Amino acid sequence: MWLSFPHKGNHPATCEGRNTRVYRLNVDRLRAIAARHGDNTAYAVAKRTGINVSSAYRILGEQTQPDLNSALLLAQAYDLDIRTLMDPVEDEPAGAAA
């Protein structure tokens, strides 16, 4: 299901005056954790996690952020709390989270 936010202020990345946080995957942290488990390539991460190989390459190449399901699979595969992989982003420009 695709959610639309047609009015300014409804999208988390553009909420003004609201205590809304945007979170992004810390890719360097993920790479370090994966390497400790012997996963030095996106292919190895994909095989361990069950994430699509091309998605793993895009995530580790910082071309995209994982969806919630993929982030949970990453955390579960490396026996982590998902918050370990995510960092809050403050004052991100509108549209940059896409």
What secondary-structure arrangement, pairings included, does this model have?
Layout: E1 22-25, H1 27-36, H2 42-49, H3 53-60, H4 68-77, E2 86-89
Antiparallel strand pairs: 1-2
Overview of the structural elements:
- This protein has 98 residues and is mostly helical.
- Helices cover 37% and strands 8% of the residues.
- It is built from four helices and two strands.
- The chain has a two-stranded antiparallel sheet.
- The radius of gyration is 15 Å and the shape is globular.
- Mean pLDDT is 83; it is low at 1-8.
Going across the biggest sheet, name each strand in turn. 1-2
CA radius of gyration:
15 Å
Count of discrete alpha- or pi-helical segments spanning 4 or more residues: 4
Q: Low-confidence parts, pLDDT < 50 over ≥5 residues?
A: 1-8
Proportion of residues in helical segments: 25-40%
Mean pLDDT across the residues is 83
What percent of residues are in strands? 5-15%
